[in-house]
Amino acid sequence: MDGDAAVRMAGLVFAALREASLDPPGVSRASYGPGERAAHAILGAAAEEVGLEVETDPVGTLSMTLPGVDRGASPVVIGSHLDAVPHGGNFDGAAGVVMGLALAARLKAAGQVLRRDLVILGIRAEEMCWFPMLYLGSRAAFGLLAPDAPDTLRRTDSGRTLAEHMAEEGFDADFIRQGRSSLDPAYIHAFIEPHIEQGPVLVEAGLPAAVVTGIRGSIRYRACSATGAWAHAGAVPRQGRRDAVLAVAALAHALEEFWKVAESGGRDLVLTIGEFSTDPAMHGPTKIPGAVGFSLDIRSEDPAVLQAAEALLRDQAARIAAERGVVIDYGTPLPVPPAAMDARLRAALLQGAEAAGVSVLEMASGAGHDALTFAGLGVPTAMLFIRNEHGSHNPEEAMDLADFAAALDVLSAAIGEIAA
């Protein structure tokens, strides 16, 4: 199988994935559901055709192994997830697993044997929209879930427990209850997660691929509130109002100014107020809004920037209370620390790009990935982005197979050094 044959095989696998999980206008591959099951079956069958060793662990993680020279050495692991959001795109997650398979096929066809095993992982349940747990599948494989997780986590669409869905798919919830693991971070030489870029950066740069510098950490406030006073829209002058909408608008303005300063100083930051609403049981066109609910999502590669953002939120809450008589309550934060990608692996990918003649960008990942689980356990970790139009988590995902091929060339040129 030559390089083009590996890419053609990848194209056929993508087509099969789409057909098996089509849910117009996109695809749906629910965690521990039929779409995800079909995706794992398709990848497993393709791996067997390539001649890889195929296994599935008790929580459903698919392992496809190309043997290396030293079977006892810690392996290089390449992979991502195979679930997808409802009516989403065909490439988010799946592109990383398919790229690992295409790389193995290319190596095998060329008779190139790496120093150590190459393991391609198809990971379960990464998308948090199905179960309320970040990176559920990779955390389960590493034995990081609480023992009661199978019985307390419920899938959002069915209301049924993780244990029930696992049993339906033929997996063993006791594996989690007993704190067991199938992956050992001490026994992984490196983890590489190829993934479509989920924003417009590569499209705007006109480049097919990027080497990720790090995954942004985040501070999320899911249930913020601003509480002022409801009053008549025509009867209260500006000085006497405790307008919750204007208070949150002032907060938003301060956050954007903070963002501009960070940006001008070359510091990584993104800020989002994703939800903003007054109470429909109380609001009206002739009422001054006395309460607003909203959410906050703050992300950066730099822990110091996240700390500065938290300090700004505290200061703004005090200022708004003093100036406007509106109390801001951010609720309980959901912090996720940033994860820097491994310097040696990044250098190997950049050298691979140069050797392959592929121009690449270096950029941060704004979204979270299973790579965070691996990096958080001390596994040397890297990510390779593939250009993709129209973002992700929507039916319009548009990864061109030529860009996939370019990223595969980068990985092919780098894999010998990564496995060394």
From TrEMBL:
Cofactor: how bound: Binds 2 Zn(2+) ions per subunit.
Cite the InterPro entries for this sequence: Amidase_Cbmase, Bact_exopeptidase_dim_dom, Peptidase_M20
Q: Where does Zn(2+) 1 bind?
A: 81, 92, 195
Where, in this chain's numbering, is Zn(2+) 2 bound? 92, 127, 393
Listed A to Z, the keywords are: Hydrolase, Manganese, Metal-binding, Zinc
In alphabetical order, the GO MF annotations are: hydrolase activity, acting on carbon-nitrogen (but not peptide) bonds, in linear amidines; metal ion binding
Q: Which Pfam families match?
A: Peptidase_M20 (PF01546)
Q: Which cofactor does it need?
A: Mn(2+); Zn(2+)
Q: Which family does it belong to?
A: Belongs to the peptidase M20 family.
Fill in the subunit field for this protein: Homodimer.
Name of this chain's protein: Zn-dependent hydrolase
